[in-house]
Amino acid sequence: MSLTWTERMIEKYCVLTEDEHAGKPVKLLDWQRHLIREGQGKRMIWLEIPRKNGKSAFIAMLAIAHLLEGYKNTSNPQVILAAATREQAGILFGYVRNMILLNPQLQKVLEPFRKEIRLKGKPGYLKTITSDGGSNHGLNPSLILADEIHSWNEVKGPELWEALRTSMAARPSQFVAITTAGSAYSFAHKWHEYAQRVKEQPEIDPSFLTIIYGAEDHENPHDPEVWAKANPSLGVTVSYKYLEELSNTAKHDEPTLLSLRKLHLNQWAGSAQPFIELSKWLNCTGKRPKTLSNWRCYLGIDLAAVNDFTAYTVLYFNGKEFYTEQYYQITDYSMTKRRNKYPNLVQNWIKNGSLDVVKGEVTTTEQRLAMIEKIMTEHPVEGIFFDPWNAAETIDKLRNKYGKAFCWEVRQSALMVNEPMKLLFRSVQTKTIRHDGNPITAWMIANTSLHIDKNDNWTFQKDKAPDRIDGTAALITAMAGYVHNANTGMSTYEEMDIIFV
User: pTM of the prediction?
Assistant: First the structure.
């Protein structure tokens, strides 16, 4: 097959820019050539590929080839490099700039400035924009190259995406979106799911090309054949030795294993450093046990800010395994904001999420107490465990009704949550916990990041994911009630010498 214009221009004019190979001509890799050829005539190309496979340099090559074509045709090429942050945009821009500076032939037609690349003597340019910036309407691009979609700002990112997509109406533009696997239920994950649908049924969107390099969830992450399947540049930009070293560490360290699977095998596994992998949590979905009335029962509550989710977790234990159900409460005002941000998720939450949507802009103490009373009538709760943050009035009224020995504080510090988090993690890995499949909890589990200090104490950072992990926090709080008060096999509420502070 004869070479395309893009292939010819890249291999004739583009050069490597780093290490001892700087200045040497580029030789396209098979996966790069495949994308160029298959992408001809497509308006949208979606590429998922693990880290260190040379995607940033490839973006620069595509940009230069397009600018050269525009120079030849005097078509006023306008290339947009879209990135998550200024730093990432600077990296992409640096690749393009360095390729030009290392090749005198390119300098005859392309002139790099501090923030733009311009055609000499003809209209046309390349510039960068970021997902955390302001409005980007008014663009008229001929080529959009978007990188690291999984890291795009969750609020402004979708706005930029739509601004870029709608800017393509006036000319035969192309949008190339490139990403590594990111958080489940994120903006990027929505497009990942759509891309998979198109891959399976190309007829639903003939203008869309899906290319995904990654491992299946069931595949062995320590198998070199799996590495090769997920990393098309293995042996060139990614070394076997590096993956072997990472794999050896990952066999003894779960966070490293999650990094291996997510960053180098391209598996969508949750947050940046997930506490519990989403697929493993979903595998613990199960029916309510028939003997549940004989199990011990604890209620964990995360009473969040008045306009966020309030989460209630019922946790059962029978001496061998756990079973849990979750309930949520939120105002219709806050729900409208989330419906605008996560329309498909919200529809599922309302249908299957055990969600109480209350009128107004704030959740009142009376509404929270009514939810707790409802749960208490449906479950044989032995005690209530709660994070005292934002909870003073609600807890005072609960203690006045049930007594201090029934309501216990669990502060979200390493002292209180380290052991419960590790127990919950082990229970999910060994499938000794079952849950009711609440989709809100699954979303929050996927967004819960793990923090490990130098003493191997586990905590989660709620401030890093506001309104996203209240369900996880309530579950850990309930688990803390079990760990610190109930694992002796006797009722804590008859033993007054254990007090949470």
Answer: 0.66
Kindly write down the DSSP assignment for every residue of 287-342, as one continuous string: PPPTTGGGSEEEEEEE---TTS-EEEEEEEE-SS-EEEEEEEEEEHHHHHHHHHH-
The confidence score (pLDDT) of residue 271 equals: 46
Percent over 70 (pLDDT), the chain: 91
Structure tokens at 24: 């040497």
Q: Cα torsion at 425, 427, 428, 431 (round to 10°)? A: 160
Q: What tokens appear for 389 in the block?
A: 């943050």
Name the region of 151 (left: φ>0; alpha: ψ -120 to 50; beta: rest): alpha
What is the rounded CA–CA span in Å between residue 18 and residue 101? 13
Asked which of 64-78, 390-404, 416-430 is least confident by mean pLDDT, the reply is 390-404
> Cα dihedral sign for 413, 419, 423, 426?
positive
Whose CA is closest to 152, among 89, 234, 75?
89
What amino acid occupies position 476?
I
The pLDDT tens digits of the residues spanning 199-228 come to: 999 999 999 999 999 998 788 999 999 999
Which residues pair with residue 25 across a beta bridge?
A: 15
Q: Distance (Å, rounded) from C-alpha 234 to C-alpha 255?
A: 23
State how far the Cα of 493 lies from the Cα of 500, in Å rounded to an integer.
12
Least confident residue range of 270-279, 289-298, 315-324, 449-458 = 270-279
Task: Tell me how crowded residue 341 is: count the other CB atoms within 10 A of its CB.
Answer: 13
CB atoms within 10 A of CB 468: 22
- ∠ CA 255-261-263 to the nearest 5 degrees? 95
Exposure of 452 in the CB half-sphere (CA atoms within 13 A): 11
Beta bridge partners of 305: none
The long-range contacts involving 171-175, CB below 8 angstroms and separated by at least 24 positions, are 171/140, 171/142, 172/142, 173/43, 173/141, 173/142, 173/143, 173/144, 174/39, 174/42, 174/43, 174/44, 174/45, 174/142, 174/143, 174/144, 175/43, 175/44, 175/45, 175/144, 175/146
Q: What is the 3-state secondary structure (H, E, C) of 165-196?
A: HHCCCCCCCEEEEEECCCCCCCHHHHHHHHHH
pLDDT at 133 over 80: no
What string of DSSP letters covers 54-117?
SHHHHHHHHHHHHHHHHHHHT---EEEEEESSHHHHHHHHHHHHHHHHT-HHHHTTEEE-SSEE
Which is more confident, 254 or 301?
A: 301
Specify whether the CB–CB gap between 471 and 447 falls below 8 A.
Answer: no
